Amino acid sequence: MHCPFCGKSDTQVLESRSVEEGGSVRRRRECVNCKKRFTTYERVKGVGLWVIKKDGRREPYDREKVKRGILRAVEKRPVSREMVDDVVEQIDREMLRKEKEEVSSKIIGRSVLRKLKKIDKVAWLRFASVYLEFEDFGDFEKAIGKA
């Protein structure tokens, strides 16, 4: 592991613990060279999951893309970064449990909507407006009526 401060590869693990319900390992490290401390996370690399987009294109599943979409929806809302990370982890596990090589973007989007609805209705509506491609105020009214 290279130190993010000085770039040397000689680091020492000070503490390790399981996080995200055992889905990854958090390690607190210290650089032997500059003595600065930093945190790393280890997780099992995804198993080649492909996403089928609305237009039929295929692209590799990217948890960071899911996270960016959720972060945009919860911007300036009382939702912690930990809650977002937890939602992303739940979606990852849900997609991998399907035991398929391909998953529709619709399935991922619906999963995000279900989870956002439980934690913040405004963030849910923001995400829905982009995901469901709202075109006018009437679309918002319909969505709010269903909420």
Automatic annotation (TrEMBL):
Q: How is the cofactor bound?
A: Binds 1 zinc ion.
User: Where in the chain are the unnamed zinc fingers?
Assistant: 3-34
Task: Answer whether the UniProt record assigns the keyword Protease to this protein.
Answer: no
Keywords for this protein: ATP-binding, DNA-binding, Metal-binding, Nucleotide-binding, Repressor, Transcription, Transcription regulation, Zinc, Zinc-finger
Give the family per the record. Answer: Belongs to the NrdR family.
Q: What does this protein do?
A: Negatively regulates transcription of bacterial ribonucleotide reductase nrd genes and operons by binding to NrdR-boxes.
Task: Name the HAMAP family for this protein.
Answer: NrdR
* Name of the protein described by the UniProt record: Transcriptional repressor NrdR
